[in-house]
Model the fold of this input.
Amino acid sequence: MEMTDLGPKMISPAAEPSHEIQILRLYIAGQTPKSIKAFANLKKICEEHLTGRYRIEVIDLIQNPQLAAGDQILAVPTLVRRLPEPVRRIIGDLSHTERVLVGLDVRPAS
Amino acid sequence: MAALAKSATGIDGFDQVTAGGLPTGRPTLICGGAGCGKTLFAISFLVHGAVKFGEPGVFMSFEESSHELAQNVASLGFDLPGLIEKKKIVLDHVKVERSEIEETGDYDLEGLFIRLGFAIDSIGAKRVVLDTIESLFAGLANQSILRAELRRLFRWLKERDVTAIITGERGDGTLTRQGLEEYVSDAVILLDHRVTEQVSTRRLRIVKYRGSAHGTNEYPFLIDEDGIAVLPVTSMGLTHGASSDRISTGIARLDTMLDGQGYFRGSTVLVSGTAGAGKSSVAAHFLDAACRRGERCLAFMFEESPAQVVRNMRSIGIDLQQWVDRGLLEFHASRPALHGLEMHLSQMHRAIDRFRPSVVVLDPVSGLLTVALETDVQSTLTRLVDYLKVRGVTALLTSLTHGRSEQEQTDVAISSIVDTWLLLVTLESSGERNRGLYVLKSRGMGHSNQIREFVLTAHGVELVDVYAGPSGVLTGSARITQEAEERAAALVRAQELDRKERTLEQLRAAFEAEVAALRAKFEAEQADLVIGIDEHRARATRLREDRGDMAQSRSADGASSDNGRKHGKEREADEQRSKER
Done:
């Protein structure tokens, strides 16, 4: 597990940029089993279905509690797709891949 | 064990009812239907905390946006943006939009906790409001997670030692739709807004208050431009003092009827009577007299506008406007149907608190009956009267009675709370209606038992003795006629007496004249007789002397011849006397 630092940093896979880049922000509250699982699930889904077309920002609310209100965070983990519009929210540990894809409005890669 | 600490809400009356406010450091559930005032109650708690008690607060709204909320409470004089600026209050609008949220797997509400915790820490909040957290049930699908998290939230609030209000929409047969009362077990307050006969009344009930004594009644409360107010019912204890000061009724003759001194200060006077019996005039006299003494008066009118009252009273020579101008008299006029009873009561409370009058007039209280049931009016008036008595305010209530036979009964509902009860009756006879007044009761004083005729003149109310004679009680023209007749009869009697006295005088004069004449005659005859007697005596003396001489000269035997001669001499004297006549 490479999730050692979950500060607000960008995890950008070295991939060719696309006009349909998904800007994703994962809000977690400390390194709980749920958040670790969510991050792992998210990475896997992105790798499989959004290869090269995503950026993930992880925000730990324990370190940055002031950010919770701005993005209307209630549940953790919450994945917010900031771009493209409209903003979408997916809560939970992202264990249902299909629902995550529906939430992100992404057609599963065949 | 120390008593439960409480945090004052600053809401009029509520802190009295709960003996201090909400339990400090614990969550309180406030539930009720839509529009019952939950949010307002909560925001009042928060704003008062921040402004009056130095306790900053966090308002987490799940329904209204911060902007909407600020606007809604601005009408109550709460300056939310200002308080937010001064870091006294944090407003956080939690938006939960089901359509925007996809749920995929396990989650918790730690985000909410962090958010709330951050808000609390940012201003050092002591008070928290969650309004209405049940919205989460609509926004999130996984109910079991939600319930578990709410349970954790309430525990967490206790750990944070904040005094919290959680609002909940009333459910069907339960206090809240989602059964929040299961989680919040410390204090539960139910707000209710019901409409009876088109008049709405708000009520508040403390369903539960762990660790504290509390009133269990339903307390009326109201929301107006001054915010929320629960009506204090704590003055029901009959512990008010009793003044033995007396104040004038403004009608001299009525003072006389009431032991010569008028009402007791701080007592409650009921003036009841049929329409047009002059109740308002009695009230106006009382107001006028109080203002004349420099006392402050408050008059609540339920039928007439102040201008109308001033004009009407001017027609009987009472100028109330001058007292209004000097700020001694204040009118509050409103139609009874304008608000529910509780609203009226509470408005009266507020007006009394602000104006601090020593005399209050309610004209007429029966008007309130049109908006509420008699039992409600009775309890409302009882509260008002107690409230006034505690403050030593003298109250005069007027009451309209209907019909003729049941005048004393219609007011039974409130009779027990009044100290002095004046009844104005109309006496109908010989085609006229006249007014009569009597004192039905007056606690603590010897009062007149007489019916007085009540006459409205251009210089005020006058009380006149009624004519009570063999032909019954007469008033009005009949009384005047009777009085005229009596005056005529008295005149006749006076003349008769005069005549008799003169006759007697004449008789006496005649008698005395006769006595004088008789006396004159008597005196004349007496004089004659005295002269005659003297002559006679003188002659008799001479005769004796003569005879003595003769006997001396004859030396005769005196005795026998003397007798014979005497007879002859007496005969001569008689003949002489009859000749003279």
Notes: The two ends of chain B are 144 Å apart (CA to CA). The first strand of chain B starts at residue 6 and ends at 7. Chain B has two domains: 6-232, 246-465.
